[in-house]
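Operator note (shift B, R.M.): manual run for Nucleoside-diphosphate sugar epimerase requested after the automated queue skipped it. Running by hand, logging everything below so the morning shift can see what happened. Input copied straight from the record, untouched. If output looks odd, do not overwrite the archive copy; leave it for review.
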Amino acid sequence: MRIAVVGATGRIGAKLTENLLAKGHSVKALSRGGPGLDALVAKGAEPFLGSFDTGAGELGRFFEDADAAFLMVKTIWDGDLHGHYPAVALRFFDALRDSPVKLAVSLTGMGSELSGNTGHFQGFHILDQILNRLRDINLVHLQGGWFMEDLSRWSDAIAQHDRIGWTLDPNVRAPWVAIRDIADIAAKEFDTPSDQRRSVKQLGIDYTMAEITEIIGRALGREVDYRFVDTSDREVETVFRERFGTLDRWVYDKNTAAALNDGRVKFRDDRPALSTTMEEFIQKTLRPLIENARKDGVKPETFLTWCSQR
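Run finished. Output pasted below as returned.
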């Protein structure tokens, strides 16, 4: 199968491209160039310069000779929080609707089935709705949970304060998934294509933040605790807006937390088995990052380290 991979040099795209090449697929790799693309070309990928996130390159030609496609949108945290996903989704639609592609695997996010003010999840909903208009393409929506790799954002907080502070209610069980598992599941979708017009697979293992900090504590050999940060606290909002971000980002993050904390965003029980547990990820990946952060000393304060010490 000839597969066009969007974001081929990213964290997920690179692993997926390597998996597909190892399985004997032909891969057309979209990237803005650089050593990452060169490495994939050396392994057999065909390069294509461009970016659906920015609109750069002759994107209308990217899918013109492909049987299948992998789609994903890069989150631009400091850019257009609300307009980026719709803009990229429309570029996908324009490039795919007259292409020979018959199967597309799209990495979306938990909560993408919901409409309304759900913060980060709202963009995934719009992405899915636009892609669903592609009449002649079988579409698999991979709903990813939080990336385990993103726990590294708290490396400094744990190193300095033995604590994670965040806006997720301590009683909420949220899904977490390792990047390599997303790449593995996506590759399997191309190995055994479904004949379903539209299907959804949810990827993640549920943990509360208290469970995660307990696992981190065991890996480090010392107690690590979780502190819930209430977004209705005006002091928290004031500090964020004055020191760490904009009002638009505050509302975006607050709506994201609310959608999880009030139970609107949650996963079903019928999910594919995943290889990477939180215990394995923390022991092999997060623990070394925390230990390095302790050696590096105090870093400039971020909102997450502020939350973890208050």
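Quick read of the result: The chain has a mean pLDDT of 95. The longest helix spans residues 278-296.
Leaving this for review. - R.M.
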